[in-house]
Amino acid sequence: MPSCFICSRTRNAESKKGNISFHRISKKDGIREQWLEFFKECGKDISTMKLTSAICSEHFKPDDFMKYLRNKTLHENAVPSIVVNRLKYAKKAVPEVLKQLTNHSIY
């Protein structure tokens, strides 16, 4: 089961209802470095990141996605820019706080 490297959100019934998707870290040169910079801005230690680490769609703006039939995929140059502060076990009692960082996207 994937979980988000930034906010620890996991794929469960609640995230499926909200159409939350999980995306592996970009391998594209230049873009990968921007993703890693975003992780650092979020206070994450990138040395703990694994090859299978993923990030949830909540960290991207809606225009970072392309719709293809019933699926949505990230643009190849999309860079996460939204910090989601959430308590791991809080559910709905404590709302998430979204904070937009500077736009790193270059497509």
TrEMBL record:
Q: Please indicate if the UniProt record lists Transcription regulation as a keyword.
A: no
- One Pfam family in the UniProt entry: THAP
What are the protein's GO molecular function terms?
A: sequence-specific DNA binding; zinc ion binding
Gene3D superfamilies noted in UniProt: THAP domain
The alphabetical list of record keywords is: DNA-binding, Metal-binding, Zinc, Zinc-finger
Species per Swiss-Prot/TrEMBL record: Acyrthosiphon pisum (Pea aphid)
Residues in domain THAP-type? 1-83
Q: What is the name listed in the Swiss-Prot or TrEMBL entry for this protein?
A: THAP-type domain-containing protein
Residue ranges that the Swiss-Prot or TrEMBL entry lists as coiled coil: none
DNA-binding listed as a keyword: yes
